[in-house]
Amino acid sequence: MKWKPVWLGCLVAALICFVIVFAEEEAYGENAPGDSTYLDISIRLSGNWRQKIALYPDGEMLYAFLPAGADREDLHWSFDESRYKVEYAGCEIANNGHVQIRDGGETFRIREPEEHTDVFYRLCILQSENIPAIFINTQSGAMEWIHAEKRNRESGELASLDQNGKLVYAGSLKKIAGRGNSSWEEDKKSYTITLSNKVSLAGMPAATRWVLQANAMDATRMRNKLTYDLARDMGLQYAIESAYVDVWLNGGYVGNYLLCEKIEDGKTRVDISAEDRADEAGSYVRKDEGAWWEYDGAQERREGYLLEFNERIGEEEAGYFYADGRQVEIRTPEQPSYDEYVYISEYARKLTERTADAVNSDAYLEYLDLESWSQLFLINELSNDTDANRYSVFYYKDKGTKLYAGPIWDYDIAWGNDVLGRDTHCSFFRLGWYGTLYDNPTFYQSITEHYRKMRQILERYLNDSIDTLCDTISCSIQMDDIRWAHSEGYTRRSDVRQWEDAVECLRDYMRERMEYFNGVWLSGETYHRVFFYNGDTVEAVTYVKAGDVVSSETLDYVAACLGMADWHTSDGEAYDRSKRVYSDLALYA
Q1: In 106-162, alpha helices (H)
Q2: CA 409 to chain centre
Q3: Cα 244 from Cα 222, distance rounded (Å)
Q4: What is the C-alpha separation between 203 and 223, in angstroms, rounded?
Q5: C-alpha dihedral over 89, 92, 95, 97, to 10 degrees?
Q6: CB under 8 Å to 240, separation ≥6 — which residues?
Q7: pLDDT band per the 50, 70, 90 thresholds, residue 196
Q8: Angle at alpha carbon of residue 388, lines to 313 and 535, rounded to 5°
Q9: What is residue 46's predicted lDDT score, i.e. its pLDDT?
Q10: pLDDT tens digits for 415-430?
Q11: What is the Cα Rg of the chain in Å?
Q12: What global pTM score does this model have?
């Protein structure tokens, strides 16, 4: 593995351990990092402006996490001189004094005269490499309010440094808020940040709204990045840009994050017509068939639509309708009128009718863009994303256009990082509109042609790109692993916690999945689909070469995932595992 020497280099060069005093307590939780430490370190970001780095306590260690490019010769202590007395190697240290650590590991001593305390501890200074840094300081100086409820938000200040430590932006932060559904329950949170003005962060096109993706359920922290890049390399229009960053909240290091463009309408995002509604206020209407806004005056129908399959719409006010039995949120236009709701829901209904008849007709092509739909199908199929066609699946349409697929979003539990998608020969995503499109000759030809290109890209990823990415983020991952060592997040979906091992598991899964579909789509041999039903719902699909049997491993694996014992056919008979497959087959749990 090309990147292991870089990982070892980080251990040698960046992990410098010394002895220092700090409070004997467990590692702090999700609230204000570093509140319980005696002293902190400050770094110079620009001119005379300094940023405090809160030291992170863990067991008998105290960690100082520094951004890439920070000058290690320009570090200063920060503590309350009126309360504490700090000594190093027998000499007293002053607040704002220069950080000078000698070889040999002399002890730090911190005394609190009024409380009669006198304690000694060790310090480790680690520094990231190669990636930018984001510092966010909230108005309250803490994160309790944000973490109490995902809808809560707070303003503050944001500073961005490039990978060389140069300050590229410093200004007001309009708001920071939590984001995510199941991932919001993890200790390491994801956030949406909104700036007061359009700003370029980490070299990406300027915008006001951004997402800090925690990747808290992916031990590699790479699945989202690789999949977003894959979509872009395949040519999927409006595929989001992303970049790794280290993040500090109120001085406390919170880990390695993926800074992403937010999926929204805009010239540098999804470029569709998105006229603002007049100031006239409307009233929210929610019925069994969907939700929209009603206005007193006549409103001209807007033409740009950004849609998201989202089965998690709760009590919040959102426009939505149902398509193919699933909830579709109308992200753009905001607060859709009844006329707009009727237009887009009727369009989706007609598309559903045409796709249902795709076995017999190409009439569906009147309603959807073949290229983008083929690309989305391949990305979801190859990655085995168990959320596909259920959550975070986007489509868009502009005036006079068909419905396009994309941009893609949220693949942290894809590529084998979920018990439901661990078998490389079995797909565990919902079929949706794609259930009948696969049987259409035009669509099938399109996906096989696009797969040839996708295979070439994946070969490059397996041979070069993954190693390059590991070289880039290895020091940041080392810091992130220490920061979240006590969180179960990275092992929530897989028991592989060590980063190097997790990366190899990802690489192996991608390779095996690609080799599997090389046979299904490129070998020239005939493959049939076997559908695994739970009631009326298709839960999984496998592809079997004509004349072969369905493997017992796959049959047992899917049954175990569904908590079932075995399979029967549509006529209620127990399935004969020795029977060879010569046509598509439906099995019922």
Answers
A1: 144-148
A2: 7
A3: 10
A4: 21
A5: -60
A6: 228, 260, 261, 263, 407, 408, 409
A7: very high
A8: 85
A9: 62
A10: 999 888 899 999 987 7
A11: 27
A12: 0.91
